[in-house]
Amino acid sequence: MHSLPLYHRITGQTVIVLGEGEAAAAKRRLVERAGGIVSNDEAALAPFAFIARDAPEDAAARLKARGVLVNVVDRPDLCQFTVPSLLERGAVLVAVGTGGVSAGLAKALRMRLEAVLPQSLGQLAAALGAARDAMRRRWPAMAERRHQIDRALTRGGIADPLDEFDADRFGGWLHGDVPPAGTDTRAEFTIASGDPDDLTLRQARWLASADLVIHDPAVAPAILALARADALRALADQPVTAVRGLTVIIRRG
Fold first, then answer.
1. How many other CB atoms are found less than 10 A from the CB of residue 193?
2. pTM score, two decimals?
3. Measuring CA to CA, which of 34, 116, 183, 210 is 20 to 30 A from 95?
């Protein structure tokens, strides 16, 4: 990765924005939309600063010397952080960034996602957040709870995030009126290369939802990186304790 993506809460915090014109105005709107307080004073105490000036070098150097993180409009060589193209669905915030290489590409990808992600995705996120206690009561064991949530969120599941949110159906699943999500499954496939682009869409989905990944030692790290960070992993020649959920077995051709 060229950058570490972070979501920083700035509600009530001061953020410096230097400059005039539409570029500076856009940064001010962005800060205010996130709950921050805009300051035009370079000397203000702030964790971040945006600069939209024709000659930004001196101001950028002074701010960096004070430990302020700096973003300079249209000057990625001076930026310590970049702002991605943002898609918002309630609590769901999707950020698409290119590290300042091409804002146009990030925007184009975000617009494609706008057409795919339903407006009700924010309602689903809110419902999942409000249902935490109820889910703990219904599935006290963490592994079982995670298994049921994963199944509900999978393609075609009770709470498929790409479908329009149905509050009644979600409530029925939560309280046991709708049959629980699927049973334990195993998926096995053979790969011909270490390039993730050579995976089929189905294989990539299996990896993304796997609870356990069993793989040959020769399987490339780039392939394994597609699995969830909390998914268990094991080499194919190692004994494995049964895991509830989806087990994916990857062979190297």
1. 13
2. 0.64
3. 210
Strand ordering across the sheet containing 185-191: 185-191, 246-252, 212-215, 232-235
CATH number for the domain formed by residue range(s) 185-252: 3.40.1010.10
Q: Which residues pair with 37 in a beta bridge?
A: 14
CB 3 within 8 A of CB 82: yes
Instruction: Please state, in angstroms and rounded to a whole number, the distance separating the CA atoms of residues 76 and 79.
Output: 5
Query: For residue 34, which of 77, 95, 75 has the smallest C-alpha distance?
Result: 95
What distance in Å separates the CA atoms of residue 14 and residue 37, rounded to the nearest whole number?
A: 5
User: Is the Cβ–Cβ distance between 204 and 248 less than 8 Å?
Assistant: no
pLDDT in tens, 20-64: 999 999 999 999 999 999 999 999 999 999 999 999 999 999 999
Helix (H, G, I), strand (E, B) or coil at 166: coil
**HEC-encoded secondary structure of 176-241:** CCCCCCCCCEEEEEEECCCCHHHCCHHHHHHHHHCCEEEECCCCCHHHHCCCCCCCEEEECCCCCC
| 246 beta partners | 185
Quote the tokens at residue 61: 């150097």
Q: Domain locations in the chain?
A: 1-82, 84-117, 121-174, 185-252
Question: Residue with structure tokens 């009126």?
Answer: 177
Which CATH number, 3.40.50.150, 3.40.50.970, 3.40.430.10, 3.40.50.720, labels domain 1-82? 3.40.50.720
Per-residue pLDDT of 205-231, as tens digits, reads 788 878 889 999 999 999 999 998 888
Handedness of CA 4, 109, 92, 73 (dihedral sign): positive
Instruction: Calculate the alpha carbon distances from 3 to 44, 48, 101 in Å.
Output: 26, 16, 12
